[in-house]
Structures are given as structure tokens and as C-alpha cells.
Write a structure and sequence with these properties.
It contains four helices and four strands. The chain is α+β, with helices and mostly antiparallel strands and 134 residues long. It has a single domain, classed as Beta-lactamase Inhibitory Protein, Chain:B, domain 1, CATH 3.30.1450. A four-stranded antiparallel sheet has the order 1-2-3-4, covered by helices on one side. A hairpin with a 5-residue loop joins strand 3 and strand 4. The N and C termini lie far apart (88 Å).
Length: 134
Amino acid sequence: MFLWYSKIMNRFHFLILAGAVVFLSSCAELQHLDEALTLQAYSKERDAQEKDVALEDKAFDQLLAGVKSGDIPVHVQSAAELERRFGQPILKTPLKPAGTYAEWLYRYQVKKPSPKVYVLVGPGGEIKGFRCEE
């Protein structure tokens, strides 16, 4: 009879010890909750950035294909329409001397080396021409 009681007490002590370990480890986790939440937010932000880059790269693929085929100069007449359809350029240089045109650069967001599409934009926002570099 004493042996049976001893086994129960050993299991009881084990359960108490296991409960104490779980309780104490969860306290340690709560101590670093702010850091864990910061890492979680960083991960979500990184995922959103990757989605944005993928969308912008897809738009650049369409622009590059259109410029190579000659469809874009026919279907896009203004800089505002170009921005609406393909997003903001990577770089906008100011108007060249004498107000002839500005040069916009489109390329992949992070891929290097990347093909480039230069768009020449007149002072009134009209598109003067396109140039591709690979």
C-alpha cells in the first residue's frame, strides 16, 4: 500500500515541477513580449514590401514589353497616363536647359543588372519619346 502511495506522490511532485517550469518559462516570454511583437510587425512589413516590389516589377515588365513592341508610344500620350498605368518612375530628372524635356527612368526595383526604360517628357507633360537600355 505504501508503494502505491509513493508512486502517486512522485507523479504529483513531477506535475508540480512541470507546472512550475511552464509557469516560469511563460513569465520569461512575457518579459520579452515587446521585442517579439516588434519582430512580428517587422515581418509583416517586410511581406508588404515584397508584395509592392512584385507589383511594381510586373508593371515594369508590361512597360518594357510595350516599349519594345512599339505599343506604348501609340497608346500612352501623357506623362500622367504613364504614371497611372505603370506607377512612379525610379528617377525624375529636372527639365533640361531651355525647357526642352525631362527624363524619367523606369527599371526593376531591386534586380541588378536591370534593363532600363527612359521616357522623355515635355514641359507640358506630353511624352516626347522612349529609349530602352539592356
